[in-house]
């Protein structure tokens, strides 16, 4: 949607949908347990200007399990979780991010896209509002489905520490 941006506030563990400069909706999130950082393998949530590079999971049932951005045919359940202890569950929808700033979050050892950083659903009951992920931004399944329907590929995503105005203003996605 034109004029839509996502602002992720790591300190508050909150994602705001900003439409034409006004907050339209806010969601609690869970960013990386390891904090913020851009280096590959760090397990950190990358900062800066990003865009939604791809949307995965349109029309899938809530709780659909994804591995390698492909639906496995499974729906998350406690029984499935018991069969796969320690698995990092990626559920319902994926908004795959790409960094916009060379040397900061794009290219080389800091490339957000190659780090497979997503906004995605997680098991219902997972804590929101506190860091717990392996680098991605986790959301409840209902919230990520709602967000998925509000954004398009190319939507600008600001994760703490970037200018208040979009560096992509006036550019095509």
Give a written overview of the molecule:
- With 173 residues, the chain is mostly beta strands.
- The protein has a single domain, classed as L,D-transpeptidase catalytic domain-like, CATH 2.40.440.
- Helices cover 9% and strands 34% of the residues.
- The chain has 2 helices and 10 strands, in the order ββββββαβββαβ.
- The strands form 2 sheets. The protein has an 8-stranded mixed β-sheet, covered by helices on one side. The chain has a two-stranded antiparallel ribbon with strand order 5-6.
- β2 and β3 form a beta hairpin.
- The protein is globular and about 40 Å long.
- The chain starts with a strand and ends in a 14-residue tail after the last strand.
N- to C-terminal distance: 11 Å
Fraction of residues in H or I helices: under 10%
Oligomer: single chain
Number of strands: 10
CATH topology: L,D-transpeptidase catalytic domain-like
Strand proportion, as a percent range, falls in 25-35%
Query: Main beta sheet: strand number and arrangement?
Result: 8 strands, mixed
Query: Could you say what the CATH architecture is?
Result: Beta Barrel
* Count of the separate structural domains: 1
Biggest sheet, spatial arrangement of strands: 3-2-1-10-4-7-8-9
- The helix/strand series, from N terminus to C terminus, equals EEEEEEHEEEHE
